[in-house]
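We emphasize that the prediction below concerns an isolated chain of 108 residues; any contacts that depend on oligomerization or on bound cofactors are therefore not represented. The input was used exactly as deposited, without trimming of termini.
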Amino acid sequence: YEESLNLDSSSGIPLSKFIDNWVEEVYEVLDEIFIKESERKIADATLTIFKTRHDLEIFKKKALYIYIREMTDCETPQLTRVVTKLKENFKEKYQFYYDNGYLTKEFL
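Result of the prediction step, given as a token string:
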């Protein structure tokens, strides 16, 4: 299903490829986005879920939060802050692509 969702039907890349590129980009700037080591640990666990999303059998938000909390030994408010930052970053990149039909090197 995911592979059939194009970001731009005429010249877009598959959503799956966009997500893969986004994950790689965020890993490159993880230290800039998240200053605290504990936040980087949570972001890494969250990005790992994105990278391995094809192998996941968990699809409920609450279950994913519990999974990440177990991986990182963090509290829910801290996890929520990190996920919110990642979500904002993703939405910004996706919106740029959606509006412009392409990604600049900055967004890959």
